[in-house]
């Protein structure tokens, strides 16, 4: 039975910009998402789904420890975190010189609160809001040159309120699946499979999320479904993905998405939701 949401309820927006974020697809996802005691997200990203899901408990996991640490700080510090971040959103900090100085400060920082505040700054000021690291583990996204980056004060407060029902974990998706228990339902939003055989694989916390990883995720979804835990997965709608998800209930649709670094270069791209359940 799908989860439900009161009619006319506004969706809670994530406070992070996020490539591949699911905010615009929430009606489709929430309609397809089964009910359960706990929603588990192995690839939580911006958190758009769990922030709006009705499940009473949440396990929000991601392989990126900086992302998970940021969420823990927002939940733990509340208004103090907003006060820490507000001075980072001024005209003086929206220059290339300030950006690269603060980026270097983030890469050198170790204190969780400082690192979390700087990650929020970088996410809102960097090119396309990307969170990306080089081989040495340093954040390396360039300055975005936005006129007035938005300080997500309202979204941070909403997140902190909803985070009371959530547990955050820095873990690989395989480890997250090992933590499943009766009553759970899983929503998995992995780095998408390539649209063609010649396309690049999507980066997963600085590493390639390979086809072998896609196969492993599908295997884990089938195993969880056999144990009575339904799993809903988002991915590109391709022949290879449909074959990989054979036996699952598939819902296919088109979304408009940028297909290059030029934001105006958009076209419909096929996506699917695959529900594995007994």
From TrEMBL:
- Quote the record's binding site residues for S-adenosyl-L-methionine: 18, 22, 62, 189
Entry superkingdom: Bacteria
Record InterPro entries:
Ade_MeTrfase_dom_2 (IPR023095), DNA_methylase_N6_adenine_CS (IPR002052), M_m6A_EcoRV (IPR012263), MeTrfase_D12 (IPR012327), SAM-dependent_MTases_sf (IPR029063)
Single biological process term from Gene Ontology: mismatch repair
UniProt xrefs under Gene3D superfamilies: Adenine-specific Methyltransferase, Domain 2, Vaccinia Virus protein VP39
The entry lists its GO molecular-function terms as: S-adenosyl-L-methionine binding; sequence-specific DNA binding; site-specific DNA-methyltransferase (adenine-specific) activity
Q: Catalytic activity, per the record? A: a 2'-deoxyadenosine in DNA + S-adenosyl-L-methionine = an N(6)-methyl-2'-deoxyadenosine in DNA + S-adenosyl-L-homocysteine + H(+)
Q: Which key words tag this protein in UniProt?
A: Methyltransferase, S-adenosyl-L-methionine, Transferase
Keyword presence, Zinc: no
Stated family = Belongs to the N(4)/N(6)-methyltransferase family.
Could you tell me what this protein is called?
Site-specific DNA-methyltransferase (adenine-specific)
- Identify the species of origin: Candidatus Mailhella merdigallinarum
Q: What is the lineage of its organism?
A: Bacteria, Pseudomonadati, Thermodesulfobacteriota, Desulfovibrionia, Desulfovibrionales
């Amino acid at each position: 039975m799908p989860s439900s949401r009161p009619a006319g309820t506004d969706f809670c927006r994530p406070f992070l910009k996020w490539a591949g974020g699911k905010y615009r697809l929430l009606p489709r996802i929430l309609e397809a998402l089964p009910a359960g005691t706990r929603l588990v997200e192995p690839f939580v990203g911006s958190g758009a789904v769990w922030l709006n899901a009705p499940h009473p408990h949440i396990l929000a996991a991601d392989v990126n420890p900086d992302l998970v640490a940021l969420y823990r700080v927002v939940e733990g510090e509340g208004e103090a975190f907003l006060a820490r971040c507000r001075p980072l959103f001024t005209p003086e900090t929206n220059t290339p010189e300030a950006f690269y100085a603060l980026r270097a400060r983030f890469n050198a920082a170790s204190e969780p609160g400082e690192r979390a505040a700087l990650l929020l700054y970088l996410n809102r000021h960097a090119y396309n809001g990307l969170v990306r690291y080089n081989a040495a583990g340093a954040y390396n996204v360039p300055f975005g040159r936005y006129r007035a980056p938005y300080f997500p004060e309202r979204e941070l407060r909403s997140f902190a309120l909803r985070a009371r029902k959530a547990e955050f974990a820095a873990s690989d998706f395989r480890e997250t699946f090992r933590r499943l228990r009766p009553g759970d339902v899983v929503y998995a939003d992995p780095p998408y499979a390539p649209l063609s055989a010649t396309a690049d694989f999507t980066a997963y916390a600085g590493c390639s999320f390979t086809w072998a990883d896609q196969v492993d995720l599908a295997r884990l979804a089938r195993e969880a479904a056999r144990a009575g835990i339904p799993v809903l997965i988002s991915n590109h709608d391709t022949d290879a993905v449909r074959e990989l998800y054979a036996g699952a209930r598939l819902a296919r649709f088109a979304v408009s998405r940028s297909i290059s670094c030029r934001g105006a270069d958009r076209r419909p791209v096929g996506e699917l939701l695959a529900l594995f359940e007994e």
